[in-house]
Amino acid sequence: xxxxxASASAFGLxxxxxxxxxxxxxxxxxxxxxxxxGLVACGQSNTGSSGGSNANTVKLGLSVPFLxxxxxxxxxxxxxxxxxxxxxxxxxxxNANQDAGKQLxxxxxxxxxxxxxxxxxxxxxxxxxxxxxxxxQQKVPFVALDDAPGAGKVYIVVRADNKEMGATSAKKMxxxxxxxxxxxxxxxxxxxxxxxxxxxxxxxxxxxxxPQVEVIERAAKWQGxxxxxxxxxxxxxxxxxxxxxxxxxxxxxxxxxxxxxxxxRLYPAGNPKHMPLVAIDGxxxxxxxxxxxxxxxxxxxxxxxxxxxxxxxxxKAAAGEQPKTGKTDHNxxxxxxxxxxxxxxxxxxxxxxxxxxxxxxxxSPKAKA
Length: 369
Hints:
This protein is of the alpha/beta class. The chain has 2 domains: 9-160 and 303-345, 3-Layer(aba) Sandwich (Rossmann fold); 162-300, Response regulator (Rossmann fold, 3-Layer(aba) Sandwich). Helix content is 40%, strand content 19%. Residues 1-10 and 12-53 have low confidence and may be disordered. This is Ribose transport system substrate-binding protein. Keywords: Signal. Residues 61-321 form the Periplasmic binding protein domain.
């Protein structure tokens, strides 16, 4: 399979083939979704209209941007568990494979197959608008997970404050490098809100608090091989590079660490050749890299919360409930964002001190399956 997920050996860890099975299974699921579209056996199937308030009439459709990363493979697994726990049904997950046009088709297909609510990570935050318009016309609520659309109406967005995660990463990086030096920021896809927010948060914090830190920004577009290539180039061009900020350890980790190894810079913290590394996401192998000192810190996303509250919001939408701004009962805050409501879930800075916390999604059995 192309764009294989990060392997443990590439993180400087023993091989863990069992973890890769999550991706293999998820990839097969994505292929099945494209050719099938049947119900997952997670509760009763829908026999009512899209506006039904009974949980048994709620049929969820999940559209993910790609399944070649543990992040979305585990999100898929969490969502299936929540569907079972909350007593609703679910169509087979669709995999857009980073194709914005295909995601539009996927969403339409899910609606045509009877989805009464859509959960989706967004491939392109502007290109998604026709899908949102279609769902609005069909009276099918759309809940965006992890990223926010740049145009169009949704029922709600469930994500962490990505700008704040970028700032938290910058604060930790500044601490690691003594507040000065050149730092590579491996950006995500700037066509996504997350890619922009994680870049802005990191850069703006450094500009405001550590002007002696020079941020070298390169867009890796959520593509591991591209991130590895960029890292190799910057290491050659900038021998005094002081640190690397990865906006997605689950996508960039293996390739970046492979490039560091080739450049003889892959050493644990405490070694004079160690390259300080800070990341966002918090996958299983990223957490193992924190344990062995290869990565200094990761801002772990509340991936389980994305699934839990995403499914809950689909049910609330079916029942005719409307979310409101303000504090929630799950330690978050609902705010307005570009004409939509957004539930901002808290993220966690992970270091060696708390890396074994079982509440972290990267430590869950789903992430290690």
